[in-house]
Amino acid sequence: MMGKDLTPVGNSSAVAQVQVHQGGENNLQIAHADQVNPTQVQVYVPGARHLPSSTRAGHQAGMRPMDPSHYHLFVIGGEDFDSDRFMVDPTRALTEYTDATLKEQFARLEPDMINQLKLFPAIFASENALYGQAADGQTAYWGAVTDIRVQDNGIRIGFHIIHPIPQNLLNENATYLGINGYRFVNELNRTHWALKRVNLFEAFQDAGIPYQPYIIMGS
Question: Would you state the pLDDT for residue 42?
C-alpha cells in the first residue's frame, strides 16, 4: 500500500510509463506520478461495495479523470450517503459560499457545464451536529460526482464515495479547504452545495488529511 502523501520529484513534464505485474486476487497497485497535472489527473475509483448489488453495477472500480483545480462541497442535513444519489434544493445550489464568478459561470446547468462540473472532485458531508464541530464519529467523504440532473423536485446528484474523512478534520482545517466561517460556526453547519476554487488534493496534503488508499496517477 502506498504512503499517504504524493511527493513531487523534480520538474520533468514527462510521465514515466510503469508496468506492474502482481499475482493473487483482490490486490490494488497504483503507479507513481512525478507531479500532479493541475488541469487533469487520473484517480483510481474503487468499486462501491457499500451499495446494494442492484445499484453497484454502475459503479465498477476503475480509473476516472478529475480536474483538481476546483472541488464541490456538498453539505446535506440528515444525509448518510449510503445510497448513490441525493437531492439538493435549487435555492441552495451554487448560490452560497461560492465565488461570484463561479456562480455566474455555472448559473445554468446546461449539458456542457454539467460535464465540466462532473470532472471536479467533491466532499460530501452532513451538517455539523454541533456549532462549528461535528459529533464524535461523524464522517464525511471525498469522491466523485457521477450525475447532475435538474428535476421538478430539485437537483439530483449522483455520486461515488472514494474515501471517508472524520468530519472534524474538515472543521479543524477549514482554512486549507476554503470553508467559510468562524471557530463556533462555519458553512458545514448549513445545507448547501458550493464550488471552491481550491485544489482538493493539495489542500488534503497541506492539512495532513489522509485520503488514501485511492490516490492519483498522472494524466
Answer: 82
Retrieve residue 94's grid coordinates.
451554487
Distances 139 to 49, 65, 129, 169, 179 between C-alpha atoms, Å = 17, 25, 11, 10, 17
**Per-residue model confidence as pLDDT tens digits over 105-123:** 999 999 999 999 999 999 9
User: What pTM was estimated for this model as a whole?
Assistant: 0.78
Separation CA 200–CA 70 (nearest Å): 7
> Using the 8-state DSSP alphabet, how is residue 118 labeled?
T
Question: What pairs with residue 166 in β-bridges?
Answer: 139
Distance from the Cα of residue 82 to its chain's centroid: 16
Using alpha carbons only, give the angle 132, 133, 137 rounded to the nearest 5 degrees: 160
Q: Of all residues in the chain, what percent are helix, strand and coil, respectively (each to 5)? A: 20, 30, 55
State the cell numbers at 157: 446528484
Task: Give the confidence band of 14 by pLDDT, cuts at 50, 70, 90.
Answer: very low
Q: Which of 23, 70, 42, 20 is nearest to 162 (CA)?
A: 42
Alpha-helical segments (H) within the chain: 53-56, 100-105, 111-117, 167-172, 174-177, 200-207
